[in-house]
Specification:
The structure holds 2 protein chains of 2 kinds.
Chain A lengths: L1 H125 L5 H41 L3 E4 H17 L4 E6 L4 E4 L1 H19 L7 E9 L2 E8 L6 H4 L19 H12 L3 E7 L3 E9 L10
Parallel strand pairs in A: 2-4
Antiparallel strand pairs in A: 1-3, 4-5, 5-7, 6-7
Chain B lengths: L2 E7 L4 H16 L6 E6 L5 H11 L4 E6 L3 E3 L3 E3 L3 E7 L3 E8 L6 H15 L4 E6 L8 H12 L4 E4 L12 E3 L2 E3 L3 E8 L2 E7 L3 E13 L2 E5 L2 E2 H8 L11 E4 L7 E3 L1 E5 L4 E4 L8 E6 L2 H18 L7 E7 H7 L4 H8 L20 E6 L2 E4 L6 E4 L3 E7 L2
Helix pairs in contact in B: 1-2, 3-4, 6-8
Classes of the chains: A alpha+beta, B alpha+beta.
């Protein structure tokens, strides 16, 4: 009985031993596999860490590049805005030069004629051949030439004065009190050469007596940009367009109502018209800054308001509402 | 009436193990002679010796089975390097084992012919087919296609044989033989009741797309675009990661089978998956937490329990995936433990929660599971899935 029990015990222990040996073998096999898996994972993890570090370096570089690009863009935008302002000034200069050229050229011709006639008179006098009729003719010519010289030089003087005013206003942006209608007519006179080449007409209406204490240079640039815009965009090749500027006053504010009867602005573009760099004429050299500058000048420099309205094939209008006098602390441009 | 006996030994000595298993079964059977059996054995055993011993104990037994990636039973729970046997006795149930040899030469034809041969021997109405086919020499999905050609609407359940993840050679058991490159089947007819359940624990997520070009297990196009683009939409790099299998909804099915993405072709932009996919299937990526994967065994068992047509099943067979064992690691034993708590032998189906003795059960970890997705539905080949088959006669 005891022997049987012992044999059973031994059998059981032998079996347990076999099972444990098998389990140990499997455990060692699994351990080896786990070690290999661990090595692989460590290696993969290291690779991922290196990739992450590289990605981070690349991202940092990209971030710096982006910041630089952004700064350069901001600088470029400022330069473009400045260039657009200078472009408006250049338009004025060209117009004035053309306008002055006519009276000055005429004056040179008249002066030359007068010099020739005087030389002939002097010769006749020194040779003792001066007749009464020759002297009479000379005096007629001299009187006529002098009158024409006076008229032409006055015209040139006026133009120079007007140009000086506008140019000074453009550059210095001086604040003063001025008559709005008269001033705008002066500004528009400088645009006359451009307008003369076209079949379009431009009229300015309103009370002569309306005055404003503001920055005339800013107003000149606003109106110049409106007109340039109409000439560039509004009229078809064979159209005979009309541009009207009406000045009125009510409730301590001045309304400058600018309108053309051109092709109008498509509704999808109307909301973007004051956005910087928005233009439909980039292929013709448009920068998309003209109306953006207008908007900034009206809102910031002149403390006013601006509205745009347009209907296709009916035309476009701008209403600029300005205070009669600016506040005590004019904003910086 | 169906009577079953289960034996399970973890003795690594082949002879000792089979003696122990047979002794356990004979204690349950008393003097009743079993008609059929299923045998699941770890790869390291002397399989011929084991099969011979079983045939010596029960001459003429209709035996099928194969080598595994892990074994499970109601005797020892989950084990590796073990041997488990389930024997069936029933006057009114017919069992018929058959085998198709060198199946890789013509998997569809040989599988179809094997069923045709077995069916001729069966006298009672055919109810069910259990199979343990080869997994490494040929496409198990093609073998299944062949079986389905002959079995039509008859459900097929089982799993492909394994070799403890060595991926070198697997063996199948048929009556007195130990074979490789074969497809053993066991047809069951007569007064048999059964039900099945399928669950994986993975849940589909993301957009559902259509497999528009596929050749066997190589997917070329999804939604008309290169298959690799679909994969890269979710995963930056391609890693053959078993933890994120793809859900494949076969045409006309509301539930899915899983396929692991194994490799890819950068030039063709195709993905090679773990088994065949039918063109027109819907495809989605999946995700699962460890606890979802473990609880899938319970879900699968409960599905089968709820669908069982009789009073209470007599036995259960389990087919779980080797990849599940790989992913679950030391947690694998919880798959069976979750079920063992649920199925006491003498409880009613309405309240299967009073623990007495566990339902006699037996199963193995496979290289691919075989089961319909739903009752009366066609059979599909699965990966990474847990399949429960409940058997009984009342």
């Amino acid at each position: 009985m005891l022997q049987q029990h012992t044999e059973n015990e031994i059998q059981s222990l032998t079996k347990e031993n076999r099972i444990l040996q098998k389990k140990l073998a499997r455990s060692q096999e699994n351990h080896a596999k786990l070690e290999e898996t661990k090595r692989n994972k460590e290696s993969r993890l290291n690779a991922v860490i290196v990739e992450l570090q590289q990605s981070q370096a690349i991202l940092e570089k990209k971030s710096t590049d982006l910041e630089q690009a952004f700064n350069q863009l901001s600088l470029m935008q400022d330069k473009l805005v400045e260039a657009e302002k200078m472009s408006a000034l250049a338009t004025l200069v060209t117009g004035i030069a053309h306008e002055i050229n006519t009276p000055v050229g005429t004056s040179i011709t008249l002066a030359s004629t007068l010099a020739d006639e005087t030389a002939m008179l002097t010769t006749a006098f020194t040779q003792g051949q001066l007749t009464r009729s020759t002297l009479h003719d000379y005096l007629d010519i001299a009187a006529e030439s002098t009158a024409l010289l006076m008229a032409n030089l006055s015209r040139a003087g006026d133009l120079i004065q007007s140009f000086k005013q506008v140019a000074v206003d453009q550059v210095i942006l001086e604040r003063r009190t001025f008559r709005v209608k008269e001033y705008l007519e002066e500004v528009l006179a400088s645009l006359a050469p451009s307008l003369k080449k076209t079949p379009h007409t431009l009229t300015v209406t309103g009370e002569e007596s309306i005055t404003i204490n503001s920055y005339p240079g800013a107003l000149a640039q606003i109106v110049t940009n409106f007109v340039t815009n109409s000439l560039t965009h509004a009229f078809d090749l064979n159209a005979h367009g009309t541009i009207c500027i009406d000045i009125s006053e009510s409730n301590g504010q001045i309304l400058i109502h600018y309108s053309d009867d051109g092709s109008g602005v498509p509704p999808e573009n109307l909301g973007k018209i004051f956005d910087p760099f928005f233009t439909t004429a980039r292929h013709r050299g448009g920068t998309g800054l003209g109306l953006h500058i207008v908007y900034n000048l009206v809102i910031q420099k002149l403390q006013g308001k601006i509205e745009v309205g347009s209907q296709l094939d009916q035309g476009t209008s701008f209403k600029v509402l300005l205070p009669l006098a600016l506040g005590a602390h004019p904003p910086s441009s | 009436m169906l009577k079953v006996a289960v034996g399970h030994s973890n003795d690594p000595d082949s002879l000792e193990a089979v003696y122990e298993v047979l002794a356990q079964c004979q204690r349950t059977l008393e003097s009743v002679k079993p008609k059929a059996g299923v045998l699941f054995a770890a790869i390291d055993f002397d399989h011929q010796l084991i099969v011979d011993q079983i045939n010596e104990a029960f001459p003429g037994i209709e035996l099928i089975g194969g080598t595994t990636d892990g074994e499970v039973s109601s005797v020892l729970g989950f084990q590796q390097d073990s041997l488990t046997l389930m024997l069936f006795c029933a006057e009114d149930i017919e069992f018929c084992a058959e085998v198709g040899r060198t199946v890789s030469q013509a998997p569809i034809d040989i599988a179809q012919q094997t069923v045709n041969t077995a069916k001729k021997r069966l006298l009672s109405p055919l109810k069910l087919c259990i199979t343990t086919p080869e997994s490494l020499t040929t496409s198990a999905a093609s073998i299944l296609d062949g079986l389905k050609l002959s079995l039509a609407e008859i459900p097929i359940l089982g799993g492909t044989t394994g070799d403890q993840t060595h991926i070198k050679q697997t063996f199948q058991f048929f009556k007195t033989e130990v074979l490789t490159d074969s497809v053993p089947i066991l047809l069951l007819g007569g007064n048999l009741l059964f039900s099945h359940g399928v669950s994986s624990g993975w849940s589909p997520l993301g957009k559902r797309s259509v497999v528009t070009k596929v050749e066997k297990n190589v997917i070329y196009e999804i939604d008309g675009k290169p298959a690799l683009d679909f994969y890269h939409y979710y995963f930056e790099t391609f890693a053959a990661d078993l933890a994120y299998p793809l859900a494949i909804f076969p045409p006309g099915e509301e539930t899915f089978v899983l396929r692991a993405a194994l490799s890819y072709d950068a030039a063709l932009r195709s993905i090679t998956v773990s088994a065949d996919v039918v063109e027109g299937s819907m495809i989605q990526i999946t995700e699962a937490a460890q606890e979802d994967i473990i609880s899938a065994s319970k879900t699968s068992f409960e599905q089968a329990w709820d669908a069982y047509p009789g009073k209470a099943p007599t036995a259960a067979l389990f087919f779980s995936c080797a990849w599940r064992r790989f992913i679950l690691g030391t947690q694998t034993m919880k798959e069976y433990e979750a079920i063992a708590k649920l199925h006491p032998q003498s409880s009613s189906p309405e309240s299967p929660n009073t623990l007495e003795s566990p339902l006699p059960s037996c199963g193995f970890y496979t290289y691919g599971e075989i089961s319909p997705l739903r009752a009366q539905g066609p059979t599909f080949f699965h990966n990474t899935t847990f399949v429960t088959l409940l058997l009984g006669s009342e």
